[in-house]
Amino acid sequence: MDHPKSVSARKAVQATAGVGAGGTQSVDRAATLLILVGRAGPAGARLADLIVETDLTKPTVHRMLTALVRAGLLDQDPQTRRYHLGPELYVLGTLASARFGLHPVSMKSLVRLSQESGDTAFLSVAHDVYAICLHREDGPYPIRVHSLQAGDRHPLGIGAGSLALLSALSDAEIDQILDVNADVLTGKYEAFSGPTLRRLVQETRQRGYALNPGMLLTGSWGIGVAIRGEAGKPIGALSIAAIEGRLGENRQRELAQILRREARSIETRLHQLGRRS
């Protein structure tokens, strides 16, 4: 028996059967492949599975996947050969978020944080086992850090906002995330081993805010706090980044206080909007 997802994907492709082999059919097929790869999650999607799920020929699926990889909409792991959502989709998602959800509700808080601190404020969200920077708001202080730009992503735990998100999860969820990210941490983030991230999580919980003491980019420090939804689950994180000399212990506590204030303000606003809908 076909899996329901396979059936729906096949119908989406077959719905274009009467359309010429040109643009519309190709767009529909490409969209279906993007959806199927996204549904595969962190493990990625195999070419063989995508062929079965779409009921298309191997050359057709391979040709379209190659085009999507070339456009940055998909990535292919060079070792497993599995397909994953690509970096350009995160950028597009960032742009779309300006109209929906957390991003617009957070804008006033981000402006206040950047102006009160003088430094750079960020809004981040979790996506699977990664954290994505949705927005960067620069403050008036003339020396700025360039650790994150809107659309950048790192494994959960890498950076202040990302660490705040990770620390707000359950221990079981953290173990699962670190297990999935083990290879990428070893390959690209040598300073962030599993034991190191677990220690940082414990310190974050004890301190009440996440601290990145220049571990990702030398001289670029940051602090962050989680934004929580109705069930107490983290739905985002606010963070402030500055040069090392501007984030001593006293100032960390001061900035943590205004970060918490703005996180609570966003949570209240989201709750009010939810009650109205």
Automatic annotation (TrEMBL):
Gene3D superfamilies registered for this protein in UniProt: 3.30.450.40, Winged helix-like DNA-binding domain superfamily/Winged helix DNA-binding domain
Extent of the signal sequence: none
GO biological process, one term: negative regulation of DNA-templated transcription
Keywords: DNA-binding, Transcription, Transcription regulation
Coiled-coil intervals, chain numbering: none
Pfam families found in the cross-reference section: HTH_IclR, IclR_C
InterPro entries: GAF-like_dom_sf, HTH_MetabolicPath_Reg, Tscrpt_reg_IclR_C, Tscrpt_reg_IclR_N, WH-like_DNA-bd_sf, WH_DNA-bd_sf
GO molecular function terms attached to this record: DNA binding; DNA-binding transcription factor activity
Superkingdom, natural source: Bacteria
SMART domains: HTH_ICLR
Residues spanning the membrane: none
Keyword Nucleus: no
Domain HTH iclR-type: 24-87
Limits of the IclR-ED domain: 88-272
Protein name: IclR family transcriptional regulator
Organism: Methylobacterium soli
